[in-house]
Write a structure and sequence with these properties.
This protein has 5 helices and 4 strands. With about 160 residues, the protein is of the alpha/beta class. Strand 1, helix 1 and strand 2 form a beta-alpha-beta unit. Helix 4 packs across helix 5. The chain is globular, with a radius of gyration of 15 Å. It is an enzyme of class 3 (hydrolase).
Length: about 160
């Protein structure tokens, strides 16, 4: 069952966050910097956390999705939860997929990175979208956080 707490306000620095951002791509143009990732993670946190965000290229994204989910293609975001620690894990963003989706969906690239980062942070805290009821809860939280950050509702159709 997902936590019932609300994400902290961006100005709430009572929670401890250990965040590492790894850029495993050659071209970082248009990609958010570490400060933006930290802002987005803080906005979605409801508890202290240890998180690694890794931005990968297509071959690494494909290998991870194949090895851990049995899928033959890359996906936009993968979340790896460290089961023995509270709110600790890796969020992997596949840069070419994120970029392609943003273009296809007519979304701002930085806003799409923000949404997928928040999505991953919510997964680390126990939220999921496997069944419809859980999906509604998670998506409404994502929308609340993203719009509070000043971006458009990620689920609205342009």
């Amino acid at each position: 069952m997902p936590p019932t707490k609300k994400p902290c306000e961006p100005a709430n620095y009572k929670l401890k966050l250990r965040l590492a951002v790894q850029y495993a791509v050659k071209d970082r143009s248009g990609m958010p910097d570490r400060l933006l990732f930290r802002r987005w993670v803080n906005a979605a946190l409801m508890e202290s956390a240890e998180i690694v965000i890794r931005i990968v290229d297509l071959p690494e994204g494909e290998a991870l999705n194949r090895d851990f989910r049995g899928k033959q293609s890359a996906t936009n975001v993968l979340t790896f939860i460290y089961g023995d620690l509270p709110c600790a894990g890796d969020i992997v963003l596949c840069a070419p997929i994120v970029s392609r989706e943003a273009q296809q969906q007519h979304k701002n690239l930085v806003a799409h990175y923000a949404h997928l980062t928040v999505h991953g942070v919510l997964h680390l805290q126990g939220y999921d979208h496997i069944d419809e009821e859980d999906a509604v809860i998670m998506e409404s939280l994502e929308t609340e956080i993203i719009t509070r950050l000043g971006y458009a509702d990620p689920y609205s159709v342009p």
